[in-house]
Amino acid sequence: MKKHTRKEFGKLLFDIAKIFLAVGVVAPFFSSELLSYRSLSISTSIVILLIIIGLFLIERGANDE
Q1: Whole-number Å distance between alpha carbons of 10 and 18
Q2: What contacts 15, CB < 8 A, 6 or more positions away?
Q3: How confident is the model at residue 31 (pLDDT cuts 50, 70, 90)?
Q4: Is the pLDDT confidence value at 9 over 70?
Q5: What angle (nearest 5°) sits at the alpha carbon of residue 56, between those of residues 55 and 59?
Q6: Is 28 exposed, middle or buried (0-12, 13-18, 19+ CB in 10 A)?
Q7: Dihedral of CA 18/19/20/24: which sign?
Q8: Distance between CA 6 and CA 9 in Å, rounded?
Q9: Nearest by Cα to 13 from 61, 26, 65
């Protein structure tokens, strides 16, 4: 991967994580069912993983420039 591509891909993952986080915060207000702790923990884990990978790729792309 080129330096700039790696950095932009990291930004994309970070933005996707922010969208998932926003949906996860807003969705329970409109849901008639209670969210299970298992689904909440899985979605939180995915968001944290995407943020970590995104930040890593952004940092790695910035260091290569």
Answers
A1: 12
A2: 54
A3: low
A4: yes
A5: 85
A6: exposed
A7: positive
A8: 5
A9: 61
Note the residue count of the chain.
Answer: 65
The residues near 33 (Cβ < 8 Å, ≥ 6 apart) are none
Whether 18 shows a pLDDT value over 70: the answer reads yes
Contact between 10 and 54 (Cβ < 8 Å) = yes
* Lookup: tokens for 8: 């932009």
How far is residue 10's CA from residue 58's CA, in Å, rounded to a whole number? 5
Please name the amino acid found at residue 12.
L
Residue 33 pLDDT grade (very low, low, confident, very high; cuts 50, 70, 90): low
